[in-house]
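Q: Predict the assembly, please.
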Amino acid sequence: MDAIVKNFPASKEKQVRPSQHEAEEAVRVLLRWAGDDPAREGLLDTPKRVAAAYRELFAGYEQSPEDVLGRTFEEVSGYDDIVLVRDIPFFSHCEHHMLPIIGKAHVAYLPNGRVLGLSKIARVVEIFGRRLQTQENLTAQIANAIEETLKPRGVAVMIEAEHLCMEMRGVLKQGSHTMTTTFTGEFKANAAEQARFFTLARNR
Ligand SMILES: [Zn+2]
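A: Predicted assembly structure:
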């Protein structure tokens, strides 16, 4: 069954999804590459499970943040101050090693007459998280999606994450955290707004 994968970010061209059989065969190759025997009992269903897990872990390719962010609310009783959702947990995978990135996102915006449902922000983090990522791109994509759909006075995104590719292999830096931030609009122009964002995001 060939389905067209929408929103594939790497290129504008539509990608044709490989068949279930091709995906399972690829897992068998990697099992042999790792040094194991795909024919042994414990591994017989593994290719099927891995293929299913990939559909879930990378479901973000088939989801559009614009759809999620499409509904905004204008009845805000004049509220125009910072809206911050902090400690949004996410799981992603690094695009270099396809190993997990585990972290938290803190996302804020300054409304311009319209607000989002709060759960929408977490959904956007999830959609971009369920794609192959770098932390820098993930941070920028979340900010851009909110900027473009809501057109607020400013967006601030901070992500803190552990990269298992750095912890399990390579430099073996266990427990290190990578921080990234992106600011737009008034958060970018005004150091006091940035400071307020950091204070609210970090105030445990
Ligand atoms: Zn990596």
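Residues 94, 96-97, 99, 163, 165 surround zinc ion (CB under 6 Å). The chain has two domains: 4-57, 70-202.
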